[in-house]
Amino acid sequence: MKSAVLTVPAEASAPRPPSHPLGGRRAWTVWGVAALAYLIAFFHRTSLGVASLAAQQRFGVGATALSMFVILQLGVYLVMQIPGGLMADRLGPRRMIGAALVIMALGETVFAFATTMPLAVTGRVLVGLGDAMTFLNLIRLIAAWFPRRRFALLTAMTAMIGSLGQVVGTVPLSAGLHAYGWTRTFVGIAVISGAMAVVVWLFVRNHPGAPMERSISVAGTSADAKKRSALDDIRAVFAARGTRTGLWTHFTLSSFTVLATLWGYPYLVKGLGMAPGPARLILTLGAATPMVAAPLLGWFAGRRPDLRGRLIISAVITLAVAWLVAITWPGGHLPAPLALLLVLINAVGSAASMLAFDLARDSNPPERGGVVSGIVNLGGFSSTITGLLTAGVLLDATGGGYGPTAFQVAFIPITGLVVIGAVRVTMLLRRSRPGR
């Protein structure tokens, strides 16, 4: 069966000369608006964490059923990475980010009025669908609007902005649920997303040569590229060594998400016997670390792209060693300084994972930027979901006591993923030219 061919109007085939300078004031405006949209998307992604207890009461479900919200939402995000990347390349970031915000607004509206699990799940699936399309298109905008040397830095700053969505939204959402109740709070979130879609449409342009574009062209896209099939694009992107290196880099360096979203606090408190205060402090330091490390790594990689490979190899090997120490420490009682080090190494690894997009970008033409980002993102989310699920299954299999040895067993698959990824990344980078 032949794959479908997606086409665009003929008048969009020739790229127009830039009407705004790369990296100028307009570029920062476009990035700033799109980054704010990503902050909102990240807030949507993590909002259920604050509303989990209220959700249990509203829908009358236990913790296992509630976890399905998160799994389905992340699952939709994972599945949509490559299709979302293809749409980013063909429809352009302006339309895709606007549509993503509208879809998330619709999902939160459904969730606001839901009183049964099926309807609530539908709402969260829509939120995951919109969320999946936001980051890819923002990366596409960075490549179009900024000089090559700033790509790594802007990608890292984008990740930092996304993390702020979780931090900034926690208190307002909690206060809103307490003051206004479930329905009005989530309807308010939906209204904010809808309003942001209008702002995106007014201020975001696909590239500097499109001051008020009516087409869906993307700078650097030829007529032949427009007529390629989706399968051709995917095959070509996978064939590039830089894409595979980026995918494995993101796959390997994403284990911090497992600690930050679910298992970090139980591990520190139940597994290692820490008091809640110090445990929260360690996780807070971990959450803050990428906000500092990511821009620094991005800035350095932009100035010295020849050293990116060495940075990544150092990060994956250090992370693998940290996890191996954690699962082999006698008795499982990792000392508090080493536990802090484990969290911080994972956090720095999360920051370094943004270099994966920089590597992959160099090996592919601009018109495939969305597919490239989608495939790289696929690596990180697949390892995250695998780590979350296997840790939970193994904790239950060991009796559910959350003791130190139980966590050592639960973290074996995560360690295995990191070690396998580290070996694969090192092999790919050593076969390539330095920094590539």
From TrEMBL:
Instruction: From the record, give the transmembrane residue ranges.
Output: 28-47, 59-80, 96-115, 151-173, 185-204, 247-269, 281-300, 312-332, 338-359, 371-395, 407-429
What the entry lists under InterPro entries is as follows: MFS, MFS_dom, MFS_Na/Anion_cotransporter, MFS_trans_sf
Among the Pfam families in the record, one is: MFS_1
Keywords (A to Z) from UniProt: Membrane, Transmembrane, Transmembrane helix
Q: What is its main location?
A: membrane
UniProt-listed CDD domains: MFS
- What is the membrane topology noted in the UniProt record heading this document? Multi-pass membrane protein
Q: Where in the cell is it found?
A: Cell membrane
**Region annotation Disordered: where it falls in the sequence:** 1-21
* Sections of the chain in a coiled coil: none
Outline the extent of the Major facilitator superfamily (MFS) profile domain.
30-433
Its recorded name reads MFS transporter
**Organism of provenance:** Actinoallomurus spadix
